[in-house]
Amino acid sequence: MNKKQRKTLNKILEKPERSDIPWSNIELLIIALGGEISEGRGSRVRVILNNVKAVFHRPHPEQVTEKGAVKSVRRFLKEAGVIS
Questions:
Q1: Strand 52-57 relative to strand 64-65: parallel, antiparallel, unpaired?
Q2: Residue 57 covered by a domain
């Protein structure tokens, strides 16, 4: 994991949730952690990390992630054993 990905992880962990994290940075973080990302229908993105699966919606037309989605990503990373 590089410095940019560590910064993204730290932003995901912040409370209250941030609403300025670019979705592309979250995808790069998941890939750096060994996860796989595949396209679903429409704006859906399927993610697998440490045998934990999730489906997220890629934000559009804005490219930043909403607070609710940041919470979901945090929960996913916890279930995948990345954070405690």
A1: unpaired
A2: yes
